[in-house]
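Each lists chain and fold; for instance:
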Amino acid sequence: MDVEVGAIVEGKVSGITNFGVFVDIGETTGMVHISEVARNYVKDLKEFVKMGQEVKVKVISVSPEGKIGLSMKQAEEPEKREERRYTRREREPAKVSRGADSFEFHPRQQESLSFEDMLSKFKQTSDEKLSGMKKTDGNRRTAQNRRKPQ
C-alpha cells in the first residue's frame, strides 16, 4: 500500500512503547509519536490506546528510509477540534497577570464604573506595583553591594 502525506487512514495498534504507538496500515507500519496521540498531556499511552484497537490516523511524514510518521490528534474532524477549544475556554477563563512585571490594566467587564473610578483604580494598582518593584529592587542593590570587594 502506497501511503500519501496528508491522507487519513484507519489502522490497528500493533505496539505500544513509552515514546509512541505503532499502527499497522495495510502492509506497512507507522508510528504515532506520544505528542501526536492527543491534544492534552499524555503521561501513559495505555490510557489512550489498547493493543489491537482500530484507530484513525493522519499520515504526516514519510522519510526516504520508508519510516511513516502518523498523528491521531490531526486525524480528528476540524469541527470537533474547534468545539473542544470553545468548551475549554468556557471552563478555563483567561488568566490576568498581576505580577510586578505587568503594567496592563484589565477592567472587569461586568462592572460599569465611571471614568474617575476607573482612573483611581488604575492609579492605586500602579502605585502597588511600583512599591513592590521598589522593594525588590532595593533588595537586589544591597545584595550586590555586599558581594563587591572593598
Summary: The first strand starts at residue 8 and ends at 16.
